[in-house]
Every structure is written in C-alpha cells, then in structure tokens.
Amino acid sequence: MSVLSLKNFSLFAAGNRLLNSVNLDIEKHDFIKITSDQQGGKSSLMNAIAGFSSSGLVNYQGEVYFQQKLIDNHCKNRELLCSDIVIISEQDQLISRMNLLDNILLPFKYHDITYSSNKFDYLLDVFDLTHEVIQLMPEEVNDVITMRCLIVRSLLLTPKLLLLDEIEGGMNQKEFTQALEVIYDQCQLNNCAILMTTTRIEGDLHTKAFNIQDNKLLEVIN
Fold it and tell me: How many CB atoms lie within 10 A of CB 17?
C-alpha cells in the first residue's frame, strides 16, 4: 500500500506553474530524493503535501492520497493526519521563549501524546544534544543545533511520512550524511517513508531520485 500518491498533480505558486501532471507513488521504507534545475518547486511541493496549500500562495490541481485516503486541497481534513505527516524545513524556527528541551517536547505536551523515553535518550545522544545543551535558549545555539532539535522532535513523533525540505542548512557534508543515516535508520524501524528535497546530489541512502526540470518530475537513473 502506498503511503503517498500524487495523481495528475499540477502545482502552482503565486500564479506560476511549477509542476505539470505529476504521478508519483511512495511506499513505506522509500527514501525519495528530489533536486531541481529550476527556480522554485521543491519547497512548494513539500508545503502542498504537508497541507499548507490553503494560504493562496501555493495551490494544486489533481489528487493527493495519503494511505489511500484522498486529502483535501483546502486542508478541510488535514487535521485527521495529526502527526502522521511531519515536515522539517530549513525555514523552521524554535520558539524563542522556550529552551531547547521544551521546544523538542512542545507537540507532546500540547497534544497530550506520549513518546518513548528510550528513543528520546538515544536521539539526544546520537545528535550530541547533552543535558547542558538542551537547557540553552534558541538564540544561544547555531543553525546546526537548531536543526538537530527539529529532527529529534520529528523522529519522536514516529510519522508515516517524513518530509525533509532542504534541511542541510549550516551542516557540512559529514554532519549532513550522519544526520540522514540516523533519520533513515529510525524511519526504517518505524515503517516511515521519507521525501527529501535538497541541493546536494551526494549520498546513496535514497531508493529513488527525481529532478524537477521544465515543470516535470523526472526520475534520475544512475
């Protein structure tokens, strides 16, 4: 069963067509990488899938299915997804008045949901987020630590589909590869599919790669 399916999917942003008649199926355990040779398209695609298409800035035609259920273009039934679709973007910010620990645990306290303490401890350790570090405020840490906090929070939610929108940020290639390896391993354990947009072509963790070119999503065959 496909985790996500796009059927005759055309994407628009600010009145411009970014994708035309895309058909794509993503299965659990898939790691799909998308790059682009054109301006725009990658983040708009992720926002549309995540349910941010009702703002008027991003819109689409066609159908989006999540676990074989049709997802409304105007977010009327997006709340049914809860934490099943999680997006991490390089544009994401932590809440300034909360320390890193409270930022990581915010969705669990807000929605009164549980998480695995063993998994939490493991993720903090593997991303080198020590007790001293997670007591710091967001303005006291750099972009790499901020992104690590966002990754830990997202993996704790154990989504069915994880959207990674150009998360490399200030990470060097080694840090980026290590982060992807942890994300990939955790998603494999939890039957989670990954859809990632990136400007980097290095790495071989992905199961399929696509490039957005001339408003088309073209599979890259190595």
Answer: 12
User: Residue 211: exposed, middle, or buried by beta-carbon count in 10 A (0-12, 13-18, 19+)?
Assistant: middle
Count CB-CB contacts under 10 A for residue 68.
Answer: 9
Q: What is the phi/psi pair of residue 16, to 5°?
A: -100, 140
pTM (predicted TM-score): 0.91
With beta carbons less than 8 A apart as the criterion, state whether 168 and 176 touch. Answer: yes
Residue 52 has phi, psi (to 5 degrees) of -100, 35
User: What does the angle CA 162 – CA 175 – CA 134 come to, to the nearest 5 degrees?
Assistant: 75
Q: d(Cα 112, Cα 131) in Å, to the nearest integer?
A: 23
Cα–Cα distance for residue pair 188/202, rounded to 1 Å: 21
Cα–Cα separations (whole angstroms), residue 76 to 43, 48, 54, 211, 212:
21, 13, 9, 30, 28
**Domains parsed from the chain with CATH numbers:** 2-219 (3.40.50.300)
Q: Which residue has 């070119």 as its token pair?
A: 213
How many angstroms separate the CA atoms of 191 and 184, rounded?
10
Q: Which residue has the tokens 């035309």?
A: 20
| 9-45 per-position pLDDT tens digit | 999 888 889 999 999 999 999 999 999 876 668 888 9
pLDDT digits (tens, 9 = 90+) for 109-149: 888 889 999 999 999 999 999 999 999 999 999 999 999 99
**Are the beta carbons of 94 and 140 closer than 8 angstroms?**
no
Contact indicator for 100, 136 with CB cutoff of 8 Å: yes
